[in-house]
Amino acid sequence: MANRCYLYSTNVIPGASDELDDRKMIGIAEWDYEIPIVSKLLLSGNPKTCRSSLWENPEEIALIGDYASGVKNLENFLSQIELEAAQNLIAETIEFLNRPENQNQYFVFECGEIFDMGDTPLFEQNLALLEELKNMQPEVERALQSLVPPPIEVHKSAGFFAKLFGRNSKFSVPVHDLMKSIDDLGLGNWSNILYFDFSGD
Fold first, then answer.
1. Which one of 47, 85, 89, 107 counts the least CB within 10 Å of its CB?
2. Alpha carbon distance 44, 129 (integer Å)
3. What single string gives the DSSP state of each residue in 121-185?
4. Gap between the terminal Cα atoms of the chain
5. Packing angle, helices 67-78 and 137-146, rounded to 10
6. Residue of 195, 185, 186 whose CA lies nearest to 27
7. What is the pLDDT of residues 163-200, one digit of tens each?
């Protein structure tokens, strides 16, 4: 089984409120082995630690954030992406997150399986991730930069003066396969059916 992180929407903060009869945990997405920027931005609305709904751990090894603020933060990021190849995924993302049946007061993020691959205690890794969520701008800038095609040098046939002085004329053309950079954002993983399913609760 792949080590995954899981994103849900919920109407209660996991922990003391778990026994409420009206608790909802709606599957939103899961990602293998990595914690993509899309998930971080969705959790970046007033993020806090909370108890896990998946792991029997007395420490707060999950995260919770405001749903509406998180979606707004993600939409602000996605609005800066102009690549045509990403537009269908962006539209799909916005449509999924704005479906009334997916919306709740909170997002809850479960990264215990990812954290468990490392040697650092789960709670400490969760605190480190929380700090990342409080300052997403550096990662946002890196992600946007990864979507800008880098120029490559293309050599043309040398002209008369270039030959005379032993130089080749050059010009830069943006040629780059950006699909991996798009995939790394974490778009396209939206689903209400996750490995850990709470639809029967």
1. 85
2. 11
3. -HHHHHHHHHHHHT--HHHHHHHHHHTSPPEEEEEPPP-HHHHHTT---EEEEE----HHHHHHT
4. 24
5. 40
6. 195
7. 555 544 444 434 456 888 899 999 989 999 999 888 76
